[in-house]
Each structure stands twice: as C-alpha cells, then as structure tokens.
Amino acid sequence: MASVLRHSAKFTSGISSSLAACARNGTACAFPCHAFRHRNSSTSSKIRVDLDSSTGVAVMTLQGPPVNSMCMDFLTDFAISMEKLELDKNCRGLILTSAVPKVFSAGLDIMEMYGKGPEHATVFWRAVQEMWFKLYSSNMVTIAAVNGSSPAGGCLLALSSDYRIMADNPRYVIGLNEAQVGIVAPFWLKDNMVQTLGHRQTEKSLQLAQLYSAPDALKIGLVDKLVPEEKVLSTATETMAKWFSIPDHSRQITKSMMRKQTIDKFLSNRETDINNFANFVTKDSIQKSLGTYLAKLKKKKA
Ligand SMILES: CCCCC/C=C\C/C=C\CCC/C=C/C(=O)SCCNC(=O)CCNC(=O)[C@H](O)C(C)(C)COP(=O)(O)OP(=O)(O)OC[C@H]1O[C@@H](n2cnc3c(N)ncnc32)[C@H](O)[C@@H]1OP(=O)(O)O
C-alpha cells in the first residue's frame, strides 16, 4: 500500500508544469501557453503519461532503464495509470511506447521471480495478471508503438493492444520466449497469442520460445505494420485517427464481444492461475533455470 501511495501518478496541469519548467530554467517560455491548454501529464518512477484532451490520445511512455523490466513498481504504476485513463472522459485512445533506447520492454523482471517465496510470487503474479487484464479489456483504442526489442512480457503488452506498429529494424526482436527462460506462458497469454497468430503458429512459437526479428514478426502477423524508427510514434497517432473514426460505443461493444470468451475464462480461473504460478516458480528446478538464465544475461556483458 505504501508503495502504491508513493508511486501514485499525479496528474498535473500541463500549463503549470511547463511554466514551472521555464521558471526552473530561468528562460522565457518558448511555446505559447495555449499549446498546453489541453495537456495533462503524469510521471511516476517507471511510467510517464501525457494526455492531450483536445485529441483524446494519451501516450504512455515506459521509462525504466536499463530495459523497462516489469518489477512491482512498474506494474503498480501501470495499473494506476490505466485506471486513471479509463475513468477520464477526455481519453479515447492510448499509445504505448518506450523512452529507453533499443528496448520496448524486456518483460517481467526476473529478479521478482528469483529467490523469492510463495507470498511474493502470489502478489507479483496478481499484479502481472492485472496489467494484462486492464490492457486487454480496455475500452480505449490501444496501440503499441514498439520502438525496440520486446520479448516475453514486452510482447504481452503488444499482443493485448488493438494494433501493433514496430520499428523496422531487424535487430529488434519480439515474441514469447518464456520456455527459453524455463517458465511457461500462462493460458490467458497463450489464448491472446492464438487469437493473433492462429493455433499452429502459436504452438510453434511457444514451444520453440521464438523471438522474431521485426520483418519476421510482420510476416507471421505478430505485428501489424513496420515503419522507420523515427516514424513509429507519428504513425501510431495517424492510425489512432482511423480507429477514432468509428463511433466509440459500437467499436467498444465489438471489442468486448471479440474478447469476452478469453476474459471470462481468465476471470473464472484467476485464483487457480495465481496458485499454479506460486507453486511453479518456487520449485527448485524452476529456480535453477531462472538462475542459469540470469547468469547468461549478465555474462553477455563480460
Ligand atoms: C504447469 C504449470 C504452469 C503454470 C504456469 C504459471 C505461470 C507461468 C509462469 C511464468 C510466465 C511468465 C510470463 C512472462 C515472462 C517474462 O517476461 S520473463 C522475462 C523474459 N525476458 C527476457 O528473456 C529478456 C531478457 N533480456 C534481453 O534479452 C535483453 O536484455 C534485451 C531486452 C534484448 C536488451 O538487451 P541489451 O540492451 O543488450 O541489455 P542487456 O541484456 O545488457 O541488459 C541490461 C541489464 O538488464 C538486465 N535484464 C535484462 N532483462 C531483464 C529482465 N527481464 N529481468 C531482469 N533483468 C533484466 C540484464 O541482466 C542487464 O543487467 P546488468 O546491467 O548486467 O546488471
């Protein structure tokens, strides 16, 4: 709870924060103040949200270096930001992107799963579920502007969005590589992938823990569009306009109809899934796999 309060994202007036920035720098404000009239920003330790009320588009920027890994603070910030946006009548669409060079998100923070007991695993997994659920069931139009590598939990963010735009860079990878880490994608994430790629492609992707380069991800339909890196955000904004041309109520009902089965299955198996995760991740053999994987990640640098 303390952590929730500590990291509670505070929406502040864009005008006052810009003025404050100008005042801090001791410079004259370079932008006319009316440019900020409709902007609201919130910043927490891991996530920044900028909502432009005049367009109805919020940009959520992941800003947790070195790799935007999803630790408890990240998950808490994410859930709070989503709740605020969902309740904000001025917000119709959300773009997810990263401020960390070359990485969209490295997925779950492995340190949250390594060397921890079942109580921690329970709290952590509930927060992971909540992240997926809030995004997958969002009323907003959600677009992932994937401007870097996006393995595992990073791919989860993209998969649960309505549309995925990725930087056209063959060095950036995306996919669900859980099996490589020695863990298993949960059933709701597997279902989410099946809806996107189909059963056969998902089976191959998950069993082989495949990470696809951006061009390969486009070929199999894991992302919808590739654009040069500097155009990822502007393309997401243009794409949003297309989705906004459909009346919200009919688009939202359609989305919820398409996603209902997966959501219902998730909700009725949620507690079992948490228990399975806590039992699974605390097993000696799984801890050993996680330890080996972590050591490999660290060794990469040496
Ligand atoms: C039968 C019952 C079944 C029950 C099943 C129930 C539940 C299912 C269980 C689990 C499901 C989990 C679902 C999701 C899982 C995940 O998300 S696991 C995370 C997987 N992620 C990865 O494998 C990515 C690993 N990272 C990378 O590949 C690279 O870091 C990169 C993202 C491509 C970026 O590369 P680069 O820019 O070169 O950065 P470095 O590799 O040098 O990394 C910088 C530092 O960050 C550390 N790090 C990287 N990723 C993570 C991470 N995910 N968690 C924690 N830390 C990470 C890395 O070690 C470096 O640290 P140092 O600077 O060396 O200290």
Automatic annotation (TrEMBL):
Pfam families per the UniProt record, alphabetical: ECH_1
UniProt keyword terms in alphabetical order: Acetylation, Fatty acid metabolism, Isomerase, Lipid metabolism, Mitochondrion, Transit peptide
Keyword Secreted: no
Subcellular location: Mitochondrion matrix
Catalytic activity: (2E)-tetradecenoyl-CoA = (3Z)-tetradecenoyl-CoA; (3Z)-dodecenoyl-CoA = (2E)-dodecenoyl-CoA; (3Z)-decenoyl-CoA = (2E)-decenoyl-CoA; (3Z)-octenoyl-CoA = (2E)-octenoyl-CoA
InterPro entries the UniProt entry points to: ClpP/crotonase-like_dom_sf (IPR029045), Enoyl-CoA_hyd/isom_CS (IPR018376), Enoyl-CoA_hydra/iso (IPR001753)
Complexes and interactors: Homotrimer.
Family: Belongs to the enoyl-CoA hydratase/isomerase family.
Function: Key enzyme of fatty acid beta-oxidation. Able to isomerize both 3-cis (3Z) and 3-trans (3E) double bonds into the 2-trans (2E) form in a range of enoyl-CoA species, with a preference for (3Z)-enoyl-CoAs over (3E)-enoyl-CoAs. The catalytic efficiency of this enzyme is not affected by the fatty acyl chain length.
Full protein name: Enoyl-CoA delta isomerase 1, mitochondrial
Organism lineage string: Eukaryota, Metazoa, Chordata, Craniata, Vertebrata
GN (gene name): ECI1
